Amino acid sequence: MNKPVIIFFLVFLIFVSCKKDKEVEQYAEDFNYTAISVNGASNGFNYSNLTGSPVIRLAFSAPLAKGSLSSGIVFKDNQGKLIEVDYSLEEGNRIVVLKAAKSLFSFSKYTIEAGDKLMSEAGGRLRTPFTLTLVTSLDPADKFPRISDEELLTLVQRQTFKYFWDFGHPVSGMARERDSSGDIVTTGGTGFGVMAIITAIHRGFVTREEGLARIQKITTFLKNKAQRFHGAFPHWLNGNTGAVQPFSTKDNGADLVETSLLMQGLLTARQYFNGAGQEADLRNDINNLWNAVEWSWFRKDNGNALYWHWSPDYNWDMNLPVRGWNEALITYVLAASSSSHAIPKSVYENGWANNSSFRNGNTYFGVQLPLGPAMGGPLFFSHYSFMGINPLGLSDTYANYETQNKAHAQINYQYCKSNPKGFYGYGPDCWGLTASDDINGYKAHEPTNDNGVISPTAALSSFPYTPEESMKALKFFYYKLGDKVWKEYGFVDAFSLHEPWFASSFLAIDQGPIIVMIENYRSGLLWNLFMSCPEVKTGMRTLGFSSPRL
């Protein structure tokens, strides 16, 4: 080997050796985290149920360069907005202490990202970037000034009423299905809305003349534009045209249960508007709608049960008999009360009661439940039919309905209070499981189908059954969670403190019972009106009901 080649080879070896030594030296200067804690607790990368001012301590294997902290450790909210942070260094600059400059919002998710822009004093970089997830819990401060219980009940009724009044469909006057439904209006929800309007007149939110005009607008639309099938209305309608808006492919015709919820409201209005002139015209329109419903035709070939659906395209293909225990007792009561198309008692006994198969009799949390599924099912079972039917002192062969509904609500309350699944937030002030919007769509929440979602309508519409427990829930929802759940139309449809998650939606079938059942608790107004219907008295006696009001 000649001399120039040897020199080149030696230079090359020196270069490679130096480069390798430099890489080792650089690698040695890089550093990593050694410990993480939030408020003194170490729980990996996820921390929940935090106060609004958590203290985060991050320990590293090398002293940190103070100038790199703001770019190397980034605090963000759930929308990616930067949170202003106060940084300090301890123990030879190996520990950084972070605190948000302002208190964090309650029930909110935040992240802290430590990345490769974080530098050591020696110029090394963070070897393994990481992200912390922080979830805050309840801020116990009141969100609104304290007012009397009566003032609070009135406020809730007034604010919730806006859903039906300010947001009522401009053409039909009917209730939109939900706040994002556009022209889709709901039959049953409109029945609730009519009862809400009567409550609003009673409470002075609108005048009698204003309420009359709105209900007349609704009945005129129902009479002249809305599609009907053997006198029954579909679940949904187009609020402009009155055409059916299919609820599902085969559910594009009559919905007898939704029709019964609508008629419950209209008959209540008929009893309320007892004057001459326009009030008499309204009564006539309601009677025409009421008498046109062919309740007995929905026995499906004169059978011993009422059927929920009929379609002009699919006939009885839905094949869903209306059997208890659920929200549809009102359907059999009105079918028996019809002056034109009544059903006999045998249809109630074989169809609704299904030969007593809906009896329960078991005890849950020390409370015996006469009827229905295990632990009662979703609470709307005790609301929808009983917005008009007064359960107090009401009984028949199968149950005492005051006992039934109070037991149902009390079991629901006791379940949430005991909180067997350990969901954060459940307790004596935060309870109520029923059908509502959910984190993943829509869900019939109940003790046997519970995923941590509370629906305000559940506890608030139970005021007649659990007044003390419902008032505690109302105060918690309003004063403690008000910044999250109290909006332009009252309380949002649902929330989970466990996730946390808060719906932004409002549904007619959930807002309506809040107004009406609070009023039934306060004055019995809607109960008294509906139960004053002579046809209802006759129909309920036919079915074997007894009550001081019959």
Automatic annotation (TrEMBL):
Pfam families: Glycoamylase. Residues 321-534 form the Glycoamylase-like domain. This is Beta-glucosidase. It comes from Arcticibacter tournemirensis.
